[in-house]
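Two entries, shown back to back:
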Amino acid sequence: MKLIWISIFCTFIVGCNIEETTVSSNIIPEHRLVVLLADFHLMDAAAKQNIVTNNHNTLVKHKQYLGVLKLHGFSKEQFDSTISFHVQHPANFKKIYEEVAIYLKLEKEKLDEKKKE
């Protein structure tokens, strides 16, 4: 009898740890989110180096972000929903940012190759 209760308890614990993730249609697909986040970071870097309008002005920064979203065909609401979703799944969000780093590295290598030509 004790063994049955232990197995029921273990099954319950394992079942509680299984997380079902339903992705809303309002969530930006991960492969497109990687490129979008990379562009956000490139825009921030350009602003910090005064290549584009300085981002110390919140309104200017907001317009720059909206411009990047528009370029990629997404709304602010879609982006906000996507970030809210991924904040609830930090392991997956970490994986996305690892892909952003790889993407930026590959883009830099492409630019370096073009400079050599």
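entry 2 starts here
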Amino acid sequence: MAVWKNETVQNVGSRAKSNLGDFQKFILRGNVVDLAVGIMIGAAFSGVVTALVGDVITPLIPIGKDDLSGGTVHLGTFINTIITFLILAFVIYFFIIKPVNALMALHKPKAAEAPTTRDCPYCLSTIPLHATRCAYCTAQLPPADQDQTSPAPAQRA
């Protein structure tokens, strides 16, 4: 059983997890999904354009000695192609776009919330953000939106 003591065989699980993690990052970047959806929608839309030209527009063009009475417009085929396109777009949106967006939202870092407290520049106690006087040392405080790097000594009460 020298195979099990081989270092390459023993580290297979960690390497597989690493590769799967890299694959997950690659997929969740969004570029891959956007490209795949673009290709599918593009192919379906090219079918709609082909059906429009072949079934609706081309029969209206008189060729040679024929007049417009000989051409038949195939609206049913064209409408069928549009319905197929809409079904494909529906499936792509609800079965690919929505789940991938939910996965990306799970892995997106949370936005930092705005602070609700600040430190008194004199006694370093935690006070509410919009307080104008410190509850601990009773110092007059500058407004919260001003720079608080150095307290003015004349403001000390």
